[in-house]
Amino acid sequence: MNSQNPLSDPEAHGGLRHRPAFKVGLALGALALLYVAFEIGRSSAGYSVFAAMHEQDVLHNEIALLKRDNRALQVRVVELQTLNAGHAHAERMVTRTIAQLQAQIARQSEKLAFYRGVVAQGAPPIGLRVGEVLLSPGKRPLHYRVDISLLRTDRPDGEVSGTVSLTADGRGPGGTTLGNQALLGKPTLQYRFRYYQEFKEDLVLPPGFSPAHLTVTVRSGHPNVAPLIQTYPWSAVSVP
Question: Mind listing the pLDDT tens digit for each residue in 95-140?
Fold first, then answer.
């Protein structure tokens, strides 16, 4: 009986050498299939890589233009300030022009900050994002001042409008959830702006209520747009 040692068989040696490469090939193929499935899923959800890249290019170009305009306006302000120093009779007119240019610079800087925020954060479907939520203690127990800011994430061609509502969940004798009416004494907060808007409202908790989370719900004035819902741990947004 002839028994051949597998270790001395060249074909066996070849199979052993190629088996790791075969496994690596299978793993790479599986990863490729997973990526293709991921891109198909994103495409089905309405996300387009090329559209997102194009939007990023548009925003970067807008930022470059705003920077250039700001530099030109600042140079013009310096020129007018110099002219103002040498011509006392034109002081009133030049001062008014400087104020107008400085206001224009402020508006351009606001746009610049807005577009930088869009590039950094991306755009949710509603076209808005919650910029900041802070809870500071009031002068009496269970009283808070809530500060909320909203920012645009799409191109600000016009004003946007809608409502903001707050919900606090936790534990208390009256239930586990408090809505906007219970917290602020009004059903909703109304927003209408072009670039951003801030809310500063007084919030009151009922006696015995221990809050755990604060939820901010932003609804668009267009009924077919899904709302933006952000939930924050109460301790994370509450400042001393």
Answer: 778 877 877 777 677 666 655 655 555 545 678 889 889 999 998 9
Q: Is 1 helix (H, G, I), strand (E, B) or coil?
A: coil
CATH superfamily of 128-237: Immunoglobulins (2.60.40.10)
Residues contacting 70, CB < 8 A, separation 6+: 105, 108, 109, 112
Pairing outcome for strands 128-137 and 177-178: unpaired
Listed residue (76, 79, 152, 161) closest to 114, CA to CA: 152
Give the residues of the chain that fall short of pLDDT 70.
Answer: 1-27, 29-55, 83-90, 107, 110-125, 174
Tell me how far apart the alpha carbons of residues 181 and 145 are, in angstroms, rounded to a whole number.
Answer: 15
Give the residue among 163, 166, 171 at the shortest CA–CA distance from 133: 166
Tell me the angle at which helices 49-86 and 91-121 cross, rounded to the nearest 10 degrees. Answer: 160
For residue 215, what pLDDT is reported? 96
Q: How far is CA 221 from CA 76, 102, 163, 191, 226, in A?
A: 41, 34, 7, 9, 10
Length reported for the chain: 240
